[in-house]
């Protein structure tokens, strides 16, 4: 039986897992697809590098065009990362009728529409399950499982590195920099971890989820992004005391055809299932008008979980090849994108202030909230022996982002407010 030949672009964390699964599960893959699958050629930067997997040296190449130009290769699995070269190679592969599987969220978030259009033109598959939430099959779930429903909210812990860091800070009081180093050693972090800690990786994933969930072409620039580099142990401790865990949440919401998408550190009520998603685990909470609440949980990064999704896509491509139906997945955004204004974005908020410790301060502060029609759920004054300021934590009821911004601006000009220490969205 003629094997399906695969070109693998990259033999790092994910590529190594792909080779392990394809080689280790040959009999199962054959039974499921009807074809043997062979990794015929592998692109690396440096052939002489020591690797923790043994592959035949004559399969390795440092020239990507050896794979693109090889007429025997049917499917290209892109797990090298980066944007410009990957895009060029992918478009060239599609031009030659090769199907693509990729784990590259950066590329799909920025150039997904162009790549998918080229794939449709050429009758090719482009599958990218591993690009969001590693081992959780959330892309297939949104495209197929929820095709009958209207999704109104997606909240995701979609970056394993930051969840690992926040978990260790919360549970062990660990220092941010130490845990980041650990996450890098474990292969969770991107080559430039700024992309993880500043929320850009999560933003790219939310661009993909928002597009799939709301059937509109969400662009990366539509996502408001804030990372975790300013989250302090103090914030985590106060949050815990009040019944919250700090999580980097991607939040995509739809109301009357208007959408908003953001990534930000968020105080999540401990009773909400997202609050107990710890370590490198990811979870995506999806609310559909008909189905109600659902949540998908699993490992969000790492060699074998990510490779599981990549090889599942490979199986889908090979099945389609055998049925002659490639290029027909049929997901096409059909709704006009309308973004919410700051007046339309509403949430509860956690605000920590350092204020003068004297009579009448609380009245001045609550007066500002009242002026902008922001109603308060709770106000807590905390004594702090090491701090001459009084610490006040305010939890608001749902308030528009525009009103909260006006309140904060007014605080900046109030003498009694010495510092706005932190502001978090609250969920759950
Ligand atoms: P990685 O460990 O850095 O591996 C990248 C591989 O690609 C290496 O084998 C490298 O070759 C090769 N490569 C990179 N640039 C190249 C170039 N210009 N020419 C030739 N070869 C090149 O990366 P990774 O963690 O496996 O991630 C791969 C992709 O999967 C990325 O898009 C990432 O965002 C995505 N992803 C990763 C995870 C995860 O948990 N790591 C999870 C989901 C998605 P050398 O080995 O010779 O250096
Ligand atoms: N750096 C990413 C993360 C890898 O930590 O989630 C998975 O996409």
TrEMBL record:
Enzyme class name: oxidoreductase
Catalytic reaction equation(s): L-homoserine + NADP(+) = L-aspartate 4-semialdehyde + NADPH + H(+)
Residues of the ACT domain: 350-425
Domain of life, per lineage: Bacteria
Binding-site residues for NADP(+), renumbered to this chain: 9-16
CDD domains cross-referenced by the UniProt entry: ACT_HSDH-Hom
Residues holding NADPH: 105
Listed PROSITE patterns: ACT, HOMOSER_DHGENASE
Protein name: Homoserine dehydrogenase
Active site: 205
Sites where the protein binds L-homoserine: 190
Pfam families: ACT, Homoserine_dh, NAD_binding_3
Family: Belongs to the homoserine dehydrogenase family.
Cofactor(s) the record lists: a metal cation
Enzyme Commission identifier(s): 1.1.1.3
Gene Ontology MF terms: homoserine dehydrogenase activity; metal ion binding; NADP binding
Pathway(s) served: Amino-acid biosynthesis; L-methionine biosynthesis via de novo pathway; L-homoserine from L-aspartate: step 3/3; Amino-acid biosynthesis; L-threonine biosynthesis; L-threonine from L-aspartate: step 3/5
GO biological process, alphabetically ordered: methionine biosynthetic process; threonine biosynthetic process
Gene3D superfamilies named in the record: 3.30.70.260, Dihydrodipicolinate Reductase, domain 2, NAD(P)-binding Rossmann-like Domain
Keywords: Amino-acid biosynthesis, Metal-binding, Methionine biosynthesis, NAD, NADP, Oxidoreductase, Sodium, Threonine biosynthesis
């Amino acid at each position: 039986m003629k094997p399906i030949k695969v070109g693998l672009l990259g033999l790092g964390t994910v590529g190594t897992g792909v080779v392990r699964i394809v080689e280790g599960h040959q009999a199962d893959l054959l039974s499921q697809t009807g074809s043997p699958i062979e990794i015929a050629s592998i692109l690396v930067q440096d052939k002489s590098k020591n690797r923790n997997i043994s592959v035949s040296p004559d399969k390795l190449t440092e020239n990507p065009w050896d794979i693109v130009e090889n007429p025997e290769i049917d499917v290209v699995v892109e797990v090298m990362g980066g944007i410009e070269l990957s895009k060029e190679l992918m478009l060239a592969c599609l031009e030659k009728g090769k199907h693509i599987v990729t784990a590259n969220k950066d590329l799909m978030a920025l150039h997904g529409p162009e790549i998918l259009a080229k794939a449709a033109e050429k009758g090719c598959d482009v599958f990218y399950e591993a690009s969001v939430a590693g081992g959780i099959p959330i892309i297939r779930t949104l495209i197929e499982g929820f095709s009958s429903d209207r999704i109104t909210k997606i909240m995701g812990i979609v970056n394993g590195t930051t969840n690992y860091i926040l978990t260790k800070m919360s549970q062990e009081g660990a220092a941010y920099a130490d845990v980041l180093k650990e996450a890098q050693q474990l292969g969770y972090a991107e080559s430039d971890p700024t992309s993880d800690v500043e929320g850009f990786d999560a933003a790219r994933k939310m661009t993909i989820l928002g597009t799939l969930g709301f059937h509109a072409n969400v662009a990366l620039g539509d996502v408001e992004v804030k990372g975790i580099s300013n989250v302090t142990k103090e914030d985590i401790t106060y949050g815990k005391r009040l019944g919250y865990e700090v999580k980097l949440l991607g939040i995509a919401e739809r109301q009357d055809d208007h959408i908003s998408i953001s990534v930000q550190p968020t105080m999540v009520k401990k009773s909400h299932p997202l609050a107990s998603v710890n370590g490198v685990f990811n979870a995506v909470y999806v609310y559909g008008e008909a189905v109600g609440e659902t949540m998908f949980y699993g490992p969000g990064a790492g060699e074998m979980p990510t490779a599981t999704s990549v090889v599942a896509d490979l199986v889908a491509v090979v099945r389609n090849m055998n049925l002659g139906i490639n290029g027909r997945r049929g997901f096409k955004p059909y709704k006009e994108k309308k973004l919410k204004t700051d007046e339309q974005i509403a949430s509860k908020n956690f605000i920590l202030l350092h204020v003068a410790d004297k009579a009448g301060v609380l009245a001045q502060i609550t007066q500002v909230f009242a002026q902008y029609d922001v109603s308060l759920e709770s106000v807590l004054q905390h004594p702090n022996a090491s701090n001459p300021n009084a610490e006040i934590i305010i939890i608001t009821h749902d308030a528009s982002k525009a009103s909260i911004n006006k309140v904060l601006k007014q605080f900046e000009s109030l003498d009694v407010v010495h510092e706005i220490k932190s502001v978090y969205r609250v969920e759950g």
